[in-house]
Amino acid sequence: MIALTAVSPAFAQGRARDRLECLTDRQITAAIESGQILSWPKIKKLAGISAYQEVSDVQVCLIEDVPYYILNVISPGGEAAKIALNAVDGTEEVL
Question: In whole angstroms, what is the distance from residue 21 CA to residue 78 CA?
Fold first, then answer.
């Protein structure tokens, strides 16, 4: 089992969000397989963002020790945005 908090010393010290600690592909796979986080397709469905176009690789990073899927998207109206979706329940975090 992966200790997700082990990859986020920056947030334990209260640093700015621009210094995110992100999981490797191997850590993401292990976290999904162990049930610590949901897969990207499940989170995308929970969050209801299927109308958005993904324009960057999806990363899993920790925000205050909570894993989030983070990516750049383009809305149906053409506006670019960076979004963070909780990797457990799909709720959005403002970056």
Answer: 29
Chain centroid to CA 35: 15
Residue 87's nearest CA partner among 23, 10, 15 is 23
- CA pair distance 59, 14, nearest whole angstrom: 21
pLDDT digits over 43-59, tens only?
A: 999 998 888 888 888 99
Annotated domain spans of the chain: 4-93
Give the residues across from 78 on adjacent strands. none
Phi, psi of 9 (to 5 degrees): -65, -25
Task: Classify strands 59-63 and 66-74 as parallel, antiparallel or unpaired.
Answer: antiparallel
Angle, CA 23 vertex, CA 39 and CA 46 arms, to 5°: 25
Alpha carbons 57 and 65: distance in angstroms, whole number:
21
pLDDT, tens digit, for every residue of 30-87? Answer: 999 999 999 999 999 999 888 888 888 899 999 999 999 999 999 889 989 899 999 9
